[in-house]
């Protein structure tokens, strides 16, 4: 029901102040930064956006602010509306449509989990129906939800039940399953890859779009990677992908969420602390992280 979400979509952080409250005035800075990085689109309130640590009202405020600051700009907004309460999901979906979101996405309930593909389809159908004019993406992220059905089976079961089903945000290391999704119904579905550190492998299989957190602060690495790939220079493309691997490994050692928000601060976009149960970096850790990023060459990579 819509064109595909091509290119890199940044999964944005939710900005907080020092006390952990929403700091919505930072959204404009995030949007300005991403446009300078030639990022066409944002995915808000997802895993990177700490959605499960936000209230439903905070998520609506966040969506409304993003729509306000991007109005009249090329930057598109995809709103994640998944939660454990399907009623909350439906309310978030309806709100996202009312403010003009480009698309919505929802991960599976993860406490009381659907025990079959059919129950997953029924759950996603309820959410999508609350936004009947907005493209819907299923957000597959089994490492976080524990829901690990083959995504192609979900798409097959859902294609005639969810009229707005457009594709899937595939944050999953199963590349065989990825190929099944890409080939299903002659490539009918828009498959957005969600594992930044091996996006190049997905690109060789036919993926044309990705959603990820490192696109917030390392977009030039990925732009160069795809340019090299398009030019047939695989060694150069692999080198850029390896930089992504090194960067992700470094941030994971510090605790990815807090470290990634710290990196945004280094770039002049203060996203604030992460909410509990995430830990945050001490002043000493921030100093050490910056030193390690400099040693890695990160700040030259993103010029």
Automatic annotation (TrEMBL):
The keyword Lyase applies. Its main location: cytoplasm. GO terms for molecular function: lyase activity. GO terms for cellular component: cytoplasm. Pyruvate binds at residues 48, 211. It is found in: Cytoplasm. InterPro entries: Aldolase_TIM, DapA-like. Coiled coil: none annotated. Belongs to the DapA family. PANTHER family: DIHYDRODIPICOLINATE SYNTHASE (PTHR12128), N-ACETYLNEURAMINATE LYASE (PTHR12128:SF21). This is Dihydrodipicolinate synthetase. It comes from Pirellula staleyi (strain ATCC 27377 / DSM 6068 / ICPB 4128). The lineage of its organism: Bacteria, Pseudomonadati, Planctomycetota, Planctomycetia, Pirellulales.
